[in-house]
Amino acid sequence: MADPEDTDLVNGTGPPPPVPPAPSYSTFLPWQKRCIIAVVAFGGWFSSLSSFIYFPAIPALASDLGVGVERINLTVTSYLIMSGIFPALVGNAADKLGRRPVFLFTLVVYVAANIGLALQNSFGLLFFLRMLQSAGISGTYSVTYGVIGDLFTPAERGGYSGIISFFLNTPPSIGPVISGLLLLRWDWRAIFWFLSIVSPCCLLSMALLLPETSRAIVGDGSIHPKGMVYRAVIPILAPPPPSNTRPSNNEEEQRPLPDTKPKKPTSVIPNPLACLLLLRHRRTAIVVGCFGAHYTIYSCLQASLSTLFTEIYHVPGLVSGLTYLPFGVACAISAFGTGRILDWDYRHTAAKEGAPVDRKRGDDDLGQFPIEHARLRSVKFSVALCSFFIVGYGWSLQQRTHMAVPLVLQFFIGLTEQGIFTGLSTLLVDMHPEASATAQAANNFIRCETAAAGLALLDLMLRRMGAGWTFVLFAGLGWAVAAMLWVLDVQGLGWRQTARTGARP
Known about the structure:
membrane; MFS_trans_sf; Growth Hormone, Chain: A
């Protein structure tokens, strides 16, 4: 007699077969992802360090090369301009060709530029090699955030973006200190020799350990590409090769797993204008514009810091370098704290919307999820508070209060400013998970070019308006940013849904 359950299955009236679970967002193990983030963040660390370690050496360079300080300042401006242009090419190349080959190529250029800078003896070579140095390292910023989109679901990106932000934003504080200590014992060449010694360590760690993570090349990590340019020498951080078969109801029948063949890049020619095309989206333009405005404020505050403290409080060179520490400590604290807050805000928004949070498999669509509100929920408060601290900072310098007052305000500016950078960078990855490095390149272009313009006007503003009104103007820019982010918070989901219908991009 036939089993009733078997009869039901034959007749199609029995319970449906269980639906297999969706695949994980990434097959990299958690400890592998953490190690990969540490390696790429080490590379991104040099992007900021190369700029800020240079500032204390400007007077010595001018004296040794026999040129004015204003000419050496041109190398700072040119570095910033190149830092905006080259990531447009590097970011798009990383999305098309993969993260690993781009990292290796740019770091080779960077190491060569550092050695050249340590050996050069003329302003012309200094100017050219600083641009080459910027071309080599500035793109690692955008590629580093691209790896975040490769490995992590939206529910966990906030925490790891905080770790990346920590690495990328500590150099403005420790860079001048390292430079000051090197200048106490040696001359300005020691700064470039220091970079020439440390940066090959990063290059070697990437060559030996870093696997390819681009989802356009390796998918969720289960695709193993051919060629050493995509494969680590020591594959300890690569996920194990997938089995080419999977069990079925009939043990003798085995079927191959789909989509495990290496993918070829869709195009081998990077498009440097691809990042700017993303700005046609209102949401992207607002995020990038707000980031650029606050990066301009941040750059002007940092660039004027040692000069103002030297003029007002008559501090020596090494102490002037130490004045960067409160801002750096605040950035370090905020980077980790903001990452956790972003993840908490995501879970809170998901619970409010009744949306499941799957940290393992993720949801790259986010079509019905208000990701703008989730990311900006706490960032808006940071934007508003930051402007108040900036006003207080400017007038504390104008009124020549005790040096502790602007230093404390610096700490709180760093605390809020870093929260803004981390939140907006994470939102940008959420908006463009399929082209996260290209999106960060657009962000990098705008922030560097606006910062260069701000720095070009900074000295004139300080002389004509004084520190108090100059930073009031910067605070007003910050409040304008807060208004734009409020609009994005309210309208962001509606704009995305409208774009899906093709009514407007």
